[in-house]
Design the sequence.
């Protein structure tokens, strides 16, 4: 799985866990709807650290808390 796929998977999991809509996350994170759609659909190939920071903030967590998930372990990621 790519890092971009892992970010999308983490976002979907947190949306479910926190019973939050994608629209609400977009409002809280400041990420435009179109960009969020690209992230969640897997079409985005360049999810940046600043985007991850904004996503974490939208969920009310730190970047470290957002990244503290098994989807981000080296065993699960295709890292070049």
Sequence:
């Amino acid at each position: 799985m790519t890092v971009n796929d892992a970010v999308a998977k983490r976002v979907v999991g947190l949306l479910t866990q926190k019973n939050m809509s994608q629209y609400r996350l977009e409002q809280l994170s400041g990420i435009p709807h179109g960009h969020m759609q690209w992230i969640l659909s897997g079409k985005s190939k360049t999810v940046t650290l600043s985007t991850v920071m904004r996503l974490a903030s939208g969920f009310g967590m730190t970047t470290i808390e957002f990244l503290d998930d098994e989807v981000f372990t080296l065993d699960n990621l295709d890292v070049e």
